[in-house]
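Changelog-adjacent note: as of this version, every example in the card shows the full chain rather than a window. The one below runs 267 residues end to end.
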Amino acid sequence: MTNAVAGYDLTGRVAVLTGAGSGIGKATALTLAAVGATIVGGDIDEAAVQATAEEITAAGGTARAVSTDVTQRAQVDALVDGAQAEFGRVDIMGNIAGIPHNKMVMDVSDDEFERILSINLKSCFYGCQAAMRVMAPRGSGNIINISSGAIDTPAPTLACYGMTKAAVAMLTKTLACEAGPLGIRVNALAPGVIHTNFSRHNFVDEDGNVIPEKVEGYKKRFGAMAPLRRVGEAQDVANGILYLVSDNASFVTGQILRPNGGVAMPW
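Full-length structure tokens:
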């Protein structure tokens, strides 16, 4: 085994992941488990995150599923503290849960604004705090946050979503400065258009049913915007997360990795 390949071995490490019931969260759980990590997955959809855990255990891995409302600090704390109590350590914290939002600024209600702040930003902050409390005493760990390509390209209806994700990016950089001396790395990913249920509003009918023709149109339309001429898949993001939490990225912190097909190329 080469040093590079060995660097991806996560045997003996424990990963706590929010949003592990579907999309990027599920793909990340399966990917990290495949290289040896124990997974503690949280999701508000208990059945979905349980299915993720069962898929991992069926493949010979170790996983736990926890019903978690990430807008509630106590539940995020319980997710992390429970992993620490059962497995004696938390090596990876993935703050992945999030929701889309599309509405013009002048049309956003207070309730909508508070909801997206709670799910996309506050939950990430809670996860970072909870992870730091258990990682700092050990002097090691990796925290991964999910930002978005929306931080690079402003667009109508994306104000609330883009603001939360820009804040996540700054939280990541600031915490990286604070956590680095403690031996903890903090990074984020800013995915471009990814084909998951997160984007299903682009390809469903009024009853929420997926329309294959709309899926193809969605992929063609958004894929044409990228130099690589395709939209991303959840696995593309999960692969980036695997790199960032692996020993191969031991000198990488405070960075925003952009799996976006080349749509945005900031310095």
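Structural remarks: The first strand starts at residue 14 and ends at 18.
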